[in-house]
Amino acid sequence: MIIRPEMVAKWAPPAPAELPEVRLRLREYVLSRNYVEFAIRIDFGGGAFFPTMQGPPENTAGVGITGGMLMARREHRRLGEAQLYWVDGDMTSLALAVADIPSGEPVRARRMPAEAGLMLFAQPIGGYDLDLAASLANLGHPGVLAPGAMVMPTPIVAVSWSTWTPAHLDLDGAPGVLTWNVRTPDGPVALDYGMEGVWLTFWTTGSSGWDALPPDLELPDLAGGTTSAGRLAEFEARSRNTPLRTCDEIVLPFDKPLPDPTPDTGGQWAHVVHTAWQLMAQTGNAQLTETETLTRPRPARKRDERDGVTASGGVRLVRVHTRHRPAPDAVADDEQASHGRRAPQWTRRWPVRPYRRNTCLNSRLHATGDCEHEERIVPAHVKGPQDKPLVVTDRVNLWDTPPPEP
Questions:
Q1: What is the pTM for the complete model shown?
Q2: pLDDT tens-digit profile of 218-261?
Q3: What is the DSSP letter of 369?
Q4: Long-range Cβ pairs for the range 165-173 (8 Å, 24+)
Q5: Region labeled Disordered — which residues (predicted)?
Q6: If both were cysteines, with which of 67, 87, 152, 399 could 42 make a disulfide (CB 3.0 to 4.6 Å apart)?
């Protein structure tokens, strides 16, 4: 059975006030189960770092598990240190609209809104489609499904980050390892203990996408019988007990611009995250966003402290500034046209797309080349009433009477 877009349920994000509880469950999850996901990515070259190994398999078999447990512990720690951000749908669509034209600005530490953070998006910032026939074949069960018959939508709905400093990974003693590599948007590079950057982990839904499908949709099981998408969603919810799960990792080196992205990859999602940081950083007359802090009740903060959370200053709710917020009917039109598990439509909300402007920060030094430049995002603007359609016409001046002779 082919899954059509209209059959896919929209992702329902946790409310902003629920994000601290989500954080606690994610910290528990990464230590109990998530190291396996990190280990698989390391073994297949999809982790933030991965080895080039030599020697027989028995000498290298434990490298992925060792690295996965190391990365899971680091994820657990940085989630405890993370400032929490909840980005609403309009802000997500604005970041997507701007990121549609890639940034040329080098990645810098000052663009990070916090040294460590967890940012949840009310709508996906992208995703990819997983062909279940290929996945089952890779697990040794070919022929259960026809290729393309069942495509699982996998949305990217959150990102966690911290500064990447490989010096403390303690990888030198791993057996059978020739070199360690860091996965970047430009491709893998040999591990340089002096390299610094931003380590991003992207998160998808905790149900592995089964909750996006009609609950009564029948699916073949591996025993030759049938099951349903609803039963699989319930199984995932019980076995994982997590609202989100890790999906991909990438490292953005400092002082290098992001390359043009490959669609449906961490490189593309990194552009959206970096753009959201740029939007949040603009202040004064150029301010495009506004942030409201939802405070955590004192008993809940005490619980955070008992669980080892050192950053419990509440949730930053990030919205588009009221001066630039789109009209409700434009938002409704975009949501009606959007796929429930993909990046949302934004063309009605931003009919004139915002654009980037290279701005000199030290104009007095510009002539000598000693200045520093930074991208500023110029908001979309349409003259005229918001409730009226944008009309573009060619103006023609008609002289119905010849001008007088000079």
A1: 0.86
A2: 777 666 677 887 887 887 777 777 889 899 999 999 999 999 99
A3: T
A4: 165/196, 166/49, 166/191, 166/192, 166/193, 166/195, 167/193, 167/194, 169/49, 169/70, 170/70, 171/49, 171/67
A5: 326-346
A6: 67
